[in-house]
């Protein structure tokens, strides 16, 4: 599918035109650079919770996730115990999946431990692919589910103790954090500097 002309006259990636939650996320976040330990931990956590579900569910529960996981402060979440896990399993404002909740706690502990060797941001940015030459993706059919870079990132994250970070989830996180730009050609969102596309908007 190629770009869709939305009711406001702007061209968007087909998935980003509606509903409002998708449009806002598409226009202001997806493919834009994300920096800082807490922000990266949030994106990785949300992508893990999304596995097997609609991203719309995650977006609609995002504030619930932030409240439940202390604003995704890794140090606080790293201190969660079994009582906290039980509390979260009863929290309807998030996705109540025990394996994913426990993985988020374990991932927080891994993120804190990473501070001794440069931190999460350094590890993630080390797997940024070089900018590609040429236009943006011509359509959603050209967007891969995994890439060699996402496979390498998943391997690196698992090696330091993170869970629910397979190559597909890692690639989704790369899209969410602006390590790659998979907006389709004609989308009104300009490419972020340093992403995979060489596309430039018309003058």
| CATH level-1 class | Mainly Alpha
Continuous helix count? 10
Total strands: 2
Query: N- to C-terminal separation?
Result: 25 Å
CATH superfamily: Hypothetical protein, domain 2
Number of domains: 1
Mind explaining what this structure looks like?
The structure is a single chain. Helix content is 46%, strand content 2%. With 203 residues, the chain is mainly α. The longest helix is centred in the middle third of the chain and has 17 residues. A two-stranded antiparallel ribbon has the order 1-2. It has one domain: Hypothetical protein, domain 2 (Endonuclease III, domain 1, Orthogonal Bundle). The C terminus is likely disordered. The radius of gyration is 17 Å and the shape is globular.
Defining key terms:
single chain; 203 residues; mainly alpha; Endonuclease III, domain 1; two-stranded antiparallel sheet; 10 helices; 46% helix; globular
Provide a short characterization of the protein structure:
The chain is mainly α.
Question: Secondary-structure blueprint of this entry?
Answer:
Elements: E1 4-5, E2 11-12, H1 20-28, H2 37-50, H3 55-60, H4 62-68, H5 74-78, H6 82-89, H7 98-114, H8 120-125, H9 148-159, H10 167-176
Antiparallel strand pairs: 1-2
Helix pairs in contact: 2-7, 2-10, 9-10
């Amino acid at each position: 599918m190629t770009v869709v002309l939305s009711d406001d006259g702007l061209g968007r990636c087909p998935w980003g035109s509606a509903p409002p939650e998708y449009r806002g996320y598409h226009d202001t976040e997806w493919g834009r650079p994300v920096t800082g330990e807490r922000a990266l931990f949030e994106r990785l956590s949300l992508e893990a919770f999304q596995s097997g579900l609609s991203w719309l569910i995650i977006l609609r529960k995002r504030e619930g996730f932030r409240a439940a996981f202390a604003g995704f402060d890794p140090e606080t979440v790293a201190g969660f115990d079994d009582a906290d896990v039980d509390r979260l399993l009863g929290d309807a404002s998030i996705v109540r999946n025990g394996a994913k909740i426990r993985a988020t706690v374990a991932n927080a502990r891994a993120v804190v431990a990473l501070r001794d060797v440069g931190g999460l941001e350094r590890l993630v940015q080390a797997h940024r692919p070089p900018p590609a030459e040429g236009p943006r993706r011509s359509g959603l059919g050209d967007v891969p589910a995994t890439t060699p870079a996402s496979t390498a990132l998943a391997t690196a994250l698992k090696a330091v103790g993170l869970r629910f970070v397979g190559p597909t989830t890692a690639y989704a996180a790369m899209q969410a954090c602006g390590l790659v730009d998979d907006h389709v050609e004609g989308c009104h969102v300009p490419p972020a500097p340093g992403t995979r596309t060489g596309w430039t908007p018309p003058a």
